[in-house]
C-alpha cells in the first residue's frame, strides 16, 4: 500500500517532470489577507497573479497547501468527526498554469495521473463539465479513454467558479470517484440526489480543474480574459483514502497513527461507527492545532485564536468521553511530527513550544469545564424554582460561548435532569454571533476585494526603492476609490515602484505624501500587502481624477518616522540575540511589531523575567549599541542563508532569494525591513515592560533613541518630585517608602483590632436580639451598613462558630446584609434545631435576598453566602428574608 508521504511525493514529482515549479506551502495563518482567518485553498497565495500581478513570471506551479476551513455550508464544526470525510485541517494538492497551458493539458495530465500513475479503476471515475463548456467535453472525449456516458454536464451551481462578485472566473471540470457497489452504479450515478454531484457520500469529488477564462463585470456579463489560467485543487485526505482502499479518511495513515495512540492511552478499541466519534474528533482537531499554532496563531478569545480555543475545547471535551481526566492532547504531538514532519519540518522545529502551548490551554480549560458544570447546575436549579422544564436558548448559548459546551453536550446533560433545551433560541443567538463575525470580517476588508479596480498600466510587481531612497517619481498601475468610516474618499493605489515600505515581518507600513503633477497633495496613511500586492492607502482633500493618476506622482516618505522605525527594527534584532544570550537558545521569536513609536517583541519562554534578567538583557543590547557595529545586508539564496545559521521567523513565507541582515557576530536574520547602517545610530535602548501573552509566550515592549531619552527624563522628573514630596533624597526613596509602608501596616493592624472588638459587640447584639424577639423562631435580620469584605466575612464566621458551639443558640437564625465594594453581600447562619424543627435553609434565604439585588449564591442549610449587584435593594432584600422567617415561625406556633 502506498503511504500518504509517497502519494504526496508522486503528485509533486509528476508535475515537476512536466515543467512545474514546486512552490512550498504558504502558512495556514495568512500573512497578507485580512479577509481570511485561515488559508482555505491552494490558490490563496496566487491571488495576485490572477489579479494581474506576476513579477516573478511564474508560468507553472504545483504544491501541497496546508488549509483550514472551520465554517461555511459544508464545514459545520459540530459535524467534523461524525462523518468520515470533512475536516478542519487538510492538505490541498494543486497545479496551476498562469497564461501557459490550458484545458487540454490539465485534463490529460489529470487522467494520466489517476489512471496510469495511481492506477485508479477507470470504471469508477466520472468527469463533470459546465453545461456550456463544449471545449472541455471534446477534450475528455478525444484525449482520454473515459466512457462518454461518464462525462456529465452541470450548471453554474456545481461547475462554475468565481473569485468574487466581479473579477476572474470560469467553468470547471471535476473528477468524481464511486466508492459504492458497482451493481447499483448504472442505476444511481445519474440521479440528481443519489448520483454524481448529489447529496451523498458515495460519489466523491476528488479533483476540481478550474479554467479561468472570463472576467465577471459589474453588470454580471462575462468578458474573455487575454490570458487564460488553470487552477486545480485535490483534497489530499480523500485521494489517500481512495488509493489506500479505505472508505473513511480516518482509516488512512494520515489519521490512524493518532487514533492508535489514543487506543493505547485509553485501552478502548476504536469503533468506525458512532462510538468512534471522540477518536475522530480528537485526531482531526489536534492536527489543526499543531499546524495553526506552528504558523503563528494562539488560542484566545477573538478571531482565529477563538477558533483554535473552540477546537481544543471540543477535542478535550470528547476526550472525557473516552476516559481522559487530565491534559492529553499535547501527548499526541510527537505522533503527528513522526508522520508529517518530513513534509512539513516546521512542526518538528517547534515541538517544545507546541507541547507547552497546548498543554497549558488544556489545563486552563480543565478548570473552565468544572466552572461550566457548576454554572449548568445553577441553571437547572433556577429552572426548577420557576417551574420550567426547558433551558433557555440564552443559557445554552452562554454555556457554549463561555465554557465551550456544544449543543449536543448540553442537550444530553439537560435530558439527564429531565429538561429539554430551547434549540430555536440557541440557533437564533448563534446566527447573530455569526453575523457579527461576518460584519467584522467585512470591516477588515476595507475595500480589499477583487472587484472595482481601475487599471491604468499593467501590473508587474511594485519595485521597492526605500532601502536607498525616501522619495521617488512613481506611476499608478491600478487604483480603487473607496470611503472611510466618515464617508470621506480614500484611494487604494498600486504603484509601479515605491519608496514606501509595505507592512511585513512585523514592521509597520510607511506614511508620507504623494503630489500630483498639478500640485495636489495626498496623504499616504498606510502601506501594506494584500495577496502580494503593495497597497497604498491614500487620503486627499481634493478629488483625484483619472487624469491626476495617469501622470507621474512624486512620492515622499515621512523621513523622521522612517529613521525612528529603523532604530527600533535593528534594536529588535539585537534584543532577540540578547535574550538568547541571557535566557538560552530555546528563545525563538513568535511575533513582533515595529514602528516609529517603539517596538514589541514576542518570544518563547516558560516563565516571567525577573528584574535582573531584564537588566542583563538591556545592558547587553546597550553595550552592542555602543560598539557601533556595522549593520550589513546581503541578498542570498534562502536555503544558503538558513544553512549559514540565519534566523527565520516561523509562519513567514520567504521567496527563493532573501535579504540577510547581519550585525557582527551578534545577529544574523532573514529580514526585508529597513535598518540603521551602524548600531550606534540607535542611541539608547530601554525596556518598558515584560508580560505573558499566552502559554509559553512572553512579550517585551521597548523604546529607543529620542523616545528612550525623553522617557528617562520624565522618569527622573517623577523621581525628583516624589523625593521632594516625601522630604528625602532620591537615593533614599526606597528606604523612605518602606518606612511609610511599615507605618501603614501598623495602623491597619490597629484598625483591624478595633474592628474585631466592634464585630464581637455586633455578634452579641445579633444573638441577643434573636433570643428576645418574642416569637417561636429566634431570628435576627440586620442591615450592617457599609463594610469591607474581610469584616463582613469575619462577622458571619464568628456567628456560625457561636451557633455551632453554644447550646442556647441551636434554634437561632442570623441573617446579615451589607454594602460591599459597590455591590451587596448577604450571609446566613442557622442552628441545627432551627433547620430540623422550622425547615430553615440558609441557602434558600440568601438566594432569595440576592435575587432581589440582581445576584445569586447559595450554600448549606446551616451556612450560606451570596452577592448582588444593586446595593439600593439591600433593605428590600432583607425584608423578603424576614418575611420568610416570620411565616415559618407562625406556622410552627
Textual characterization of the structure:
The protein is α+β, with helices and mostly antiparallel strands and 893 residues long. The protein is built from 26 helices and 33 strands. Strands 1, 2, 3, 4, 5, 6, 7, 8 and 9 form a nine-stranded mixed β-sheet that branches. Strands 12-15-16-20-19-18-21-14 form an eight-stranded antiparallel β-sheet. It has a five-stranded mixed β-sheet with strand order 29-30-31-33-32, sandwiched between helices. The termini are far apart. The relative contact order is 0.06. The mean pLDDT is 89.
Short overview:
By secondary structure, the chain is of the alpha+beta class. The mean pLDDT is about 90.
The level of helicity is: 40-55%
- CA radius of gyration is 34 Å
Biggest sheet features? 9 strands, mixed
Mean pLDDT: 89
Which runs of at least 5 residues are low in confidence (pLDDT < 50)? none
| Secondary-structure class | alpha+beta
Q: What is the CA–CA distance across the termini? A: 86 Å
The best one-word shape is: globular
Q: Tally of extended strands?
A: 33
Q: What percentage of amino acids are in beta strands?
A: 15-25%
Q: Count of DSSP helices? A: 26
Amino acid at each position: 500500500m502506498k503511504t500518504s508521504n509517497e502519494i504526496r511525493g508522486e503528485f509533486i514529482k509528476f508535475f515537476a517532470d512536466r515543467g512545474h515549479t514546486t512552490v512550498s506551502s504558504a502558512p495556514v495563518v495568512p500573512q497578507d489577507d485580512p479577509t481570511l482567518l485561515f488559508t482555505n485553498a491552494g490558490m490563496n497565495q496566487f491571488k495576485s497573479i490572477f489579479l494581474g500581478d506576476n513579477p516573478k513570471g511564474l508560468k507553472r506551479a504545483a504544491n501541497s497547501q496546508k488549509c483550514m476551513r472551520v465554517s461555511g455550508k459544508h464545514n459545520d464544526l459540530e459535524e467534523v468527526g461524525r462523518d468520515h470525510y470533512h475536516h478542519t485541517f487538510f492538505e490541498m494538492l494543486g497545479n496551476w498554469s498562469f497564461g501557459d497551458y490550458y484545458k487540454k493539458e490539465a485534463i490529460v495530465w489529470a487522467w494520466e495521473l489517476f489512471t496510469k500513475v495511481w492506477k485508479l479503476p477507470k470504471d469508477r471515475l466520472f468527469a463533470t463539465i459546465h453545461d456550456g463548456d463544449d471545449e472541455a467535453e471534446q477534450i475528455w472525449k478525444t484525449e482520454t479513454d473515459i466512457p462518454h456516458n461518464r462525462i456529465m454536464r452541470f450548471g453554474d451551481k456545481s461547475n462554475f467558479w468565481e473569485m468574487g462578485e466581479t473579477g476572474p472566473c470560469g467553468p470547471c471540470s471535476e473528477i468524481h470517484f464511486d466508492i459504492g457497489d458497482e451493481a447499483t452504479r448504472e442505476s444511481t450515478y445519474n440521479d440528481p440526489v443519489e448520483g454524481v454531484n448529489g447529496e451523498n457520500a458515495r460519489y466523491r469529488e476528488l479533483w476540481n480543474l478550474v479554467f479561468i477564462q472570463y472576467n465577471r463585470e459589474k453588470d454580471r456579463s462575462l468578458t474573455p480574459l487575454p490570458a487564460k489560467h488553470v487552477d486545480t485543487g485535490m483534497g489530499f485526505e480523500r485521494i489517500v483514502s481512495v488509493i489506500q482502499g479505505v472508505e473513511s479518511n480516518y482509516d488512512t495513515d494520515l489519521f490512524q497513527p493518532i487514533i492508535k495512540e489514543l487506543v493505547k492511552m485509553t485501552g478502548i478499541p476504536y469503533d468506525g461507527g458512532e462510538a468512534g466519534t471522540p477518536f475522530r474528533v480528537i485526531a482531526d482537531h489536534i492536527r489543526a492545532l499543531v499546524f495553526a499554532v506552528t504558523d503563528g496563531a494562539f488560542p484566545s478569545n477573538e478571531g482565529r485564536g477563538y477558533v483554535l480555543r473552540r477546537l481544543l475545547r471540543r477535542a478535550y471535551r470528547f476526550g472525557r468521553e473516552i476516559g481522559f481526566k487530565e491534559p492529553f492532547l499535547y501527548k499526541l504531538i510527537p505522533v503527528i511530527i513522526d508522520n508529517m514532519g518530513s513534509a512539513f519540518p516546521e512542526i518538528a522545529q517547534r515541538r517544545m513550544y507546541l507541547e507547552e502551548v497546548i498543554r497549558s490551554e488544556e489545563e486552563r480549560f480543565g478548570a473552565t469545564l468544572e466552572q461550566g458544570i457548576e454554572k449548568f447546575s445553577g441553571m437547572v436549579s433556577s429552572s426548577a424554582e420557576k417551574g420550567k422544564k426547558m433551558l433557555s436558548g440564552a443559557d445554552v448559548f452562554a454555556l457554549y460561548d463561555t465554557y465551550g459546551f456544544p449543543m449536543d453536550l448540553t442537550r444530553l446533560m439537560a435530558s439527564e435532569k429531565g429538561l429539554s433545551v430551547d434549540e430555536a433560541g440557541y440557533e437564533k443567538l448563534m446566527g447573530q454571533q455569526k453575523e457579527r463575525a461576518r460584519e467584522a470580517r467585512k470591516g477588515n476588508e476595507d475595500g480589499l476585494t477583487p472587484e472595482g479596480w481601475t487599471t491604468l498600466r499593467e501590473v508587474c510587481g511594485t519595485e521597492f526603492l526605500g532601502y536607498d531612497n525616501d522619495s521617488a517619481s512613481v506611476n499608478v498601475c491600478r487604483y480603487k476609490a473607496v470611503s472611510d468610516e466618515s464617508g470621506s474618499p480614500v484611494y487604494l493605489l498600486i504603484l509601479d515602484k515605491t519608496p514606501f515600505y509595505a507592512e511585513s515581518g512585523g514592521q509597520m507600513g510607511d506614511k508620507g505624501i504623494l503630489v500630483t503633477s498639478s500640485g495636489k497633495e495626498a496623504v499616504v496613511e498606510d502601506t501594506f500587502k494584500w495577496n502580494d500586492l503593495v497597497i497604498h492607502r491614500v487620503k486627499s482633500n481634493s478629488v483625484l481624477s483619472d487624469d491626476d493618476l495617469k501622470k507621474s506622482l512624486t512620492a515622499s516618505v515621512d523621513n523622521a518616522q522612517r529613521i525612528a522605525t529603523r532604530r527600533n527594527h535593528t534594536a529588535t534584532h539585537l534584543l532577540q540575540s540578547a535574550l538568547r544570550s541571557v535566557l538560552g537558545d530555546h528563545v525563538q521569536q513568535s511575533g513582533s511589531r515595529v514602528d516609529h513609536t517603539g517596538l514589541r517583541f514576542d518570544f518563547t519562554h516558560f516563565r516571567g523575567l525577573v528584574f535582573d534578567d531584564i537588566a542583563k538583557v538591556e545592558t547587553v543590547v546597550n553595550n552592542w549599541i555602543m560598539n557601533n557595529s556595522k549593520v550589513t545586508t546581503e541578498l542570498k539564496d534562502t536555503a544558503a542563508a538558513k544553512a549559514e545559521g540565519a534566523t527565520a521567523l516561523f509562519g513567514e513565507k520567504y521567496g527563493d532569494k532573501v535579504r540577510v541582515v547581519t550585525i557582527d557576530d551578534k545577529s544574523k536574520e532573514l529580514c526585508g525591513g529597513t535598518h540603521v547602517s551602524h548600531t550606534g545610530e540607535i542611541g539608547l535602548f530601554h525596556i518598558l515592560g515584560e508580560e505573558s501573552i499566552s502559554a509559553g509566550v512572553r512579550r517585551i515592549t521597548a523604546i529607543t533613541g529620542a523616545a528612550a531619552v525623553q522617557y528617562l527624563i520624565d522618569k527622573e522628573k517623577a523621581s525628583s518630585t516624589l523625593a521632594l514630596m516625601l522630604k528625602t533624597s532620591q537615593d533614599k526613596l526606597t528606604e523612605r517608602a518602606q518606612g511609610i509602608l511599615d507605618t501603614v501596616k501598623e495602623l491597619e493592624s490597629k484598625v483591624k483590632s478595633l474592628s474585631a472588638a466592634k464585630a464581637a459587640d455586633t455578634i452579641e447584639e445579633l444573638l441577643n436580639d434573636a433570643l428576645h424577639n418574642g416569637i417561636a423562631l429566634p431570628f435576627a435580620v440586620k442591615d450592617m451598613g457599609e463594610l469591607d469584605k474581610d469584616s463582613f466575612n469575619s462577622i458571619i464566621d464568628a456567628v456560625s462558630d457561636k451557633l455551632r458551639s453554644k447550646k442556647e443558640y441551636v434554634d437561632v437564625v442570623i441573617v446579615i446584609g451589607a454594602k460591599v465594594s459597590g455591590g451587596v453581600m448577604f450571609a446566613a447562619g442557622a442552628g441545627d434545631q432551627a433547620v430540623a424543627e422550622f425547615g430553615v435553609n440558609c441557602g434558600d434565604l440568601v438566594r432569595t435576598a440576592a435575587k432581589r439585588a440582581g445576584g445569586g449564591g447559595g450554600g448549606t442549610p446551616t451556612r450560606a453566602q451570596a452577592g448582588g449587584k444593586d446595593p439600593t435593594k439591600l433593605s428590600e432584600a432583607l425584608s423578603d428574608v424576614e418575611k420568610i422567617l416570620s411565616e415559618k415561625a407562625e406556622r410552627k406556633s
